[in-house]
Amino acid sequence: MTDKILVTYATMTGSTRGVAEAIGKTLAELGANVDIVPMKDVKEISDYKAVIAGSAIQAQKWLPEAMDFMRTNKSVLNQKPFAVFLVCMTLAMTKGNNYREAVSGWLTPVREIAVPISEGLFTGILDIKKIPSFNDRLKFRISMLTGVWKEGDHRDWEAIRNWAINLKSQLN
Ligand SMILES: Cc1cc2nc3c(=O)[nH]c(=O)nc-3n(C[C@H](O)[C@H](O)[C@H](O)COP(=O)(O)O)c2cc1C
User: Fold this and answer.
1) Best mutation site among 8, 57, 94 for ligand 1 pocket (most ligand atoms within 8 Å of CB)
2) Which of 9, 81, 150, 152 could be cross-linked to 20 through a Cys-Cys bond (beta carbons 3.0 to 4.6 Å apart)?
3) Cβ neighbours of residue 94 closer than 8 Å, sequence gap 6 or more
């Protein structure tokens, strides 16, 4: 086994890649040896000393490719330090700020496959022109007009960095 940490991510419109890169950069600044790889390109994880896996949320779930990654690598993930994160818009809702518990619940299917040592819940980006489906674009436009959330980049780089710093101390 190497001393490398794998940060792997599943994204549809790109914002989760930026979160994964920020996590990887922070870990590297703290002295870790890090690979940042899209989940679809991951082949073998047994050589890594730890794995950090994250996905964008759609319909209150990790993306299907991320759940496939969990099922494919279940036995290895249960044998090494494993942390997860998600990227979503609910935590950026303009009204109310008490959704962390509900959002955390979206990780239940992930926890049933392998129990993480840490879970990062992060705000993402709403960029309507990047959403492929007309119906989904319409739903998001309506939710913007009704004031549910605002379009734009809501990623909280400080929260992401702090989570990664805390995680690094757990991986030593
Ligand atoms: C079709 C679709 C469904 C989504 N469903 C949810 C959802 O159920 N809950 C949520 O909080 N955010 C939801 N979002 C927002 C995304 O999680 C958010 O835009 C995220 O930053 C996307 O990450 P990505 O750019 O890596 O794909 C959805 C976005 C899309 C396009």
Assistant:
1) 57
2) 9
3) 147, 148, 149, 150
Tens digit of each residue's pLDDT, the chain (172 residues): 889 999 999 999 999 999 999 999 999 999 999 999 999 999 999 999 999 999 999 999 999 999 999 999 999 999 999 999 999 999 998 776 679 999 999 999 999 999 999 999 999 999 999 999 999 999 999 988 988 888 999 999 999 999 999 999 998 7
Distance (Å) from CA 162 to ligand 1 centroid: 23
- What total number of domains does the chain contain? 1
The contacts of residue 82 (CB under 8 Å, 6+ apart) are 50, 51, 52, 53, 114, 115, 116, 117
Interval between CA 92 and ligand 1 midpoint (Å): 11
- Is residue 148 situated within a structural domain? no
Containing 108, the helix (H) or strand (E) segment is helix 108-111
Residue 58, ligand 1, Cβ within 6 A: yes
Q: Report the separation in Å between the CA atom of 55 and the middle of ligand 1, taken as the mean of its atom positions.
A: 10
Whole-model pTM?
0.95
Is any atom of ligand 1 closer than 6 Å to the C-beta of 148? no
